[in-house]
Amino acid sequence: METMTATIERTTATTNTGRDAARGTGHVGGGRAARYVFAAVRIALGWTFLWAFLDKTFGLGFATEAKDAWLNGGSPTRGFLTFGAAGPFQGLYQDIAGAAWADWLFMAGLAGIGVALLLGIGMRVAAVAGGLLYVLMWTAVLPPENNPFMDEHLINAAVLAGLALVNAGDTLGLGRAWAALPLVRRLPWLR
Questions:
Q1: Please, which residues have CB within 8 angstroms of residue 146's CB and are 6 or more apart in sequence?
Q2: CA–CA separation, 15 vs 3, rounded Å?
Q3: What is the pLDDT of residue 45?
Q4: pLDDT in the model for residue 160
Q5: Cis omega (within 30 of 0) on the bond before 148?
Q6: What distance in Å separates the CA atoms of residue 7 and residue 1, rounded to the nearest whole number?
Q7: Is 53 exposed, middle or buried (0-12, 13-18, 19+ CB in 10 A)?
C-alpha cells in the first residue's frame, strides 16, 4: 500500500509539473484561482508603489499636498525622515532627509517597482528592490507602533519574494513575453 501511495504521489507531482512546464508557466500546484489571486496581489502592491510616486511627484493631496510636491520643489524624503523617523536609526535617516540623491533613489525605486509589478515584468528585480525598500521603511520607525518587531513592511517584503518565486507576472501581466526576450533568457535574474 505504501508503495502504491508513493507511486501515485510521484506520478501526480510529475504530471502537474509536466503540465505546468508544457504551458510555460513555471507554476507548481495552486491552480488557476491561485494564479489570479497572486496576480491581484502583485497588481495591488504595484499600485501602492506607483501611487506613492505619483502623489509625491504631483502633490495629489493624499499624503502630499500640492505645495510640497516634488515638481514644486518639495522633497519626497525630507518630511517623514526628519519628523517621522524614530528608534536606533533615527539619526541616520535624519541625516539623509532631503538629500537629492536620497530623493532620486527613493522616487526611482517607487516608480520602477510600481511599473514592474503592474506590468508583471522584472519580478525578481522588483522583489529584491521592493523588499529592500520595505525593510528600510521598517527600520525607519523601530520598534513598530503596534508590535515588538513585526509590521506590514516585513510581511509585504516576504509577499514580494513569494510573488517572484511563483512567477506572478505571468498571469494578467507581461511576464511570459518578458521571459522570452533574448536578454532575459541570457540573464535570468531579470525575469
A1: none
A2: 18
A3: 98
A4: 98
A5: no
A6: 10
A7: buried
